[in-house]
Design brief:
Layout lengths: L4 E6 L5 E5 H10 L4 H12 L4 E3 L2 E5 L2 H11 L8
Antiparallel strand pairs: 1-2, 1-4, 3-4
Length: 81
C-alpha cells in the first residue's frame, strides 16, 4: 500500500480535514478493523469511491483539490519557481 492524500469527515458533521492513508490505516487498526477490510477500504479509495466506515467518511484527495489547497495556503506569500 502506498500513502495517498485523503479527505476525512466525521459522520454527521460538515467539518472536513486533510489526512493521509497511513494515519487512517493506523486509526482503523486501533478500531479493530480486519486486514481484509482495511485492504478493501484502500482499494475502494484508490478507485475513487467515497467510503464510510467506523464513523468516518473518506475520499481520495484529487489533484484539483491539492492545487486549490496550495493556492489557498500561498495566497499571501511570494512563491519562487
Amino acid at each position: 500500500m502506498q500513502n495517498i492524500p485523503l479527505i476525512a469527515a466525521l459522520e454527521g458533521t460538515q467539518h472536513k480535514v486533510s489526512t493521509d492513508w497511513f494515519a487512517i490505516m493506523a486509526m482503523l487498526k486501533t478500531r479493530e478493523l480486519s486486514e481484509d477490510d482495511i485492504n478493501n477500504v484502500y482499494n475502494e479509495l484508490c478507485a475513487g469511491l467515497r467510503v464510510t466506515t467506523r464513523g468516518l467518511t473518506l475520499s481520495k484527495l484529487s489533484a484539483d483539490d491539492l492545487n486549490d489547497k496550495i493556492i489557498k495556503q500561498s495566497e499571501n506569500k511570494d512563491i519562487l519557481i
